[in-house]
Design brief:
By secondary structure, the protein is α+β, with helices and mostly antiparallel strands. It folds into two domains: 63 residues, no CATH class; 143 residues, Jelly Rolls (Sandwich), CATH 2.60.120. 30% of the residues lie in helices and 33% in strands. The strands form two sheets. Strands 1-4-9-6-7 form a five-stranded antiparallel beta sheet, with no helix packed on it. A five-stranded antiparallel beta sheet has the order 2-3-10-5-8, covered by helices on one side. Helix 4 crosses helix 5. The two termini are 39 Å apart. The chain binds calcium ion (CA) (2 copies). One calcium ion (CA) binds next to loops. The site of one calcium ion has 7 residues, from loops.
Length: 252
């Protein structure tokens, strides 16, 4: 579940009208270049500022939260693997064409070498975060592959229980031939009962050791977003309603 920029833009003035004096709303919207339609103002007044505040602040927070990337160092622009863990050989940072443009300088590269051994089959780059049952998670990454012969790669999401057991696993499509940076994604997967953590992962499988030259797999610009379960939104909306009431009381 996601909200487009235009939907956020639409609900933002509603939220402002609900909790702030009119002249302040106009100032903020003018500064942000957000148009205010008279019909919105009429609706806000007729429903009542508090009532619309309950609905709209919850909706605004939901829209903003749904779009916030929760991963740390998602673009490797620290110049290292800070916040990530890697296993197996071949991981390094690359520059130049190994960075996904338009911004930044680094991407995460795995070299599957002709001198690797068969036991080095899986190479994983992953970041863990707290997660709860019922949450809807989405993840994506840009993946570039070069000179592939006998290895393949994909994006993966795993949900873990409190003993680090895997209780849910989802994968993007699997890349087994060369491609320029291409968005790989996993959308709206639900954290199962017992979830305490999510692991967002770039995975490479060396099916067999390449014989011609190195196979390169390059990951950059990971993203992970979550929509909390409905009961969480109900709580947030109640909190928002409380805030709106306090503001009203202070004004009179
Ligand atoms: Ca980057
Ligand atoms: Ca190769």
């Amino acid at each position: 579940m996601g909200f487009s920029f235009s939907e956020q833009t639409l609900c933002f003035p509603f939220f402002l009208v609900a909790v702030l004096p009119e002249n302040v709303v106009y100032n903020i919207c003018n500064r942000l270049h957000i148009p205010i339609l008279p019909i919105w103002k009429e609706k806000a007044m007729s429903i009542g500022r508090t009532g619309i505040g309950i609905f709209v602040l919850g909706f605004a927070l939901m829209a903003l939260s749904a779009q916030a990337n929760l991963l740390l160092n998602p673009d490797f622009e620290t110049g290292d693997f800070t916040s990530w863990t890697t296993n197996a050989p071949g991981w390094r940072l690359g520059g130049g064409a190994d960075n996904h443009t338009p911004s930044g300088s680094f991407g995460a590269v795995n070299d599957v070498s002709t001198t690797d051994t068969a036991g080095q089959q899986y190479r994983i780059l992953q970041q863990e975060m707290a997660a709860s049952p019922g949450e809807l998670w989405s993840a994506s990454v840009y993946l570039r592959t070069v000179n592939l012969e006998s290895s393949q790669s994909f994006l993966e999401v795993q949900f873990w229980n409190n003993s680090d057991g895997v209780i849910g696993q989802f994968q993007s499509s699997i890349v087994s031939s060369d491609q320029p940076f291409t968005l790989m994604s996993i959308s709206d997967v639900a954290a199962p009962a017992g979830t305490v953590k999510i692991s967002v992962r770039g995975v490479i499988e060396m099916v067999s050791v390449p014989t011609g030259n190195t196979d390169f797999h390059i990951f950059d610009d990971f993203e992970a977003t979550v929509v909390p379960e409905p009961s969480t939104w109900a709580l947030i909306s109640l909190g928002a309603a409380g805030l709106a009431l306090i503001r009203r009381r202070k004004k009179v």
